[in-house]
User: Fold these one by one.
Assistant:
Number 1:
Amino acid sequence: MNVVIVDDGFLIALTYGSTSDWVRNIFAAGGGTLVYRQDRIEVVNPRIVEEEGSHSAFPAVVRAGLKVLDVRKYLELDRRAT
């Protein structure tokens, strides 16, 4: 899974599409737990973004792969306030 930190949350490239089971589960639950670099982080407010510049948040090598796969949708999640 390709995940990057953005603002107060995370951006996940939806390489398997926005209707995969795990994405639907995140929406049904209103969030979940993301394990990022061995940290467990509670995330909320899931939303699909299709902004042209979203891929620019990823490292160049990942962007190249996302372009080849024609990924256009991303899942954005906010970090739950503690």
Number 2:
Amino acid sequence: MTDSWFQKLFRRVKKPNLQSIRALAEKGDVDAQFGLGLKYANSKGAAQDYLEAASWYLKAAAQSHSMAQFNLGIMYAKGQGVPMDDSKAAMWMRKAADQGDAAAQFNLGIRYYRACIEPTEAAPLNLKIEAYKWLHLSAVQGYHGSAAACERVTLMMTRDDVVDGNNRVAAFVAQNLATVVE
């Protein structure tokens, strides 16, 4: 007897087991590597293994998987499975943000915004413009909280700063569209 269209539509898809996912990941499958990182990072209790998660995220991130790059950045920022390292966190966040990841763009924008509020001698003067750019890009994608954060940054800016920020947003979008078209 064959299944009706209704039964086929609502049939549960069998999830691949951990061994088959690991085999794919070990062969270099970027999605399997990311999936293992996610599994180990989000498991409960003794199954949670940040060191293993970071290892798999790093493999996927090295293959330009933007969510793996973002998650690895978070792990470096919090010291989960890797030594806490703000410069590595920012580097991985930037890689993900450059690929259009809204969460990474928001996180990077907030980092720049905080640096504006608590400036250091080493901080460049255009931090608020960079904060505006990344928060604006994240807001356009509808990422929660980014529009309000972008408005807060805008209050610190001059008209020329906003024009510069909008030019940076336009340049980012144009560059990414050119990459997609190629």
